[in-house]
Design brief:
Length: 110
């Protein structure tokens, strides 16, 4: 009942926050150097639009008389889309290894 729902909401919030903070560092593996700033900026902007519209969507769903359970499931759809996108990105990286190869080298601040 309520304990399971609470655990699921906690897991949803935790993983959503982790996804938001890890996409930018991961983007360095997918965008070439010459377009990395544009790519990560566009990605971050799209994420902010989603964050803003997500809060409004909750109000709209409540106005449409969705139950809390239905709202919870509805708000999982964008996360599912993100999981599918991450899976596709991994498959593209395996198919075209030269296009996403980034060698991490340690740097020292001077």
């Amino acid at each position: 009942g309520l304990g399971i729902l609470t655990a699921l909401i906690f897991a949803l919030g935790l993983t959503t926050n982790c996804a938001n903070t890890t996409w930018v560092p991961l983007a360095t593996n997918y965008y070439p150097t010459e377009m990395r700033a544009t790519g990560t900026g566009t990605m971050t902007g799209a994420g902010r639009i989603g964050a803003i519209s997500g809060a409004s969507m909750g109000a709209v769903l409540l106005a449409w008389h969705f139950s809390m359970g239905q709202i919870f499931y509805f708000l999982c759809v964008p996360i599912l889309i993100g999981v599918i996108a991450a899976y596709c990105m991994e498959r593209v990286a395996k198919t075209h290894p030269d296009s996403t190869t980034v060698v991490a080298t340690p740097t020292l601040a001077h």
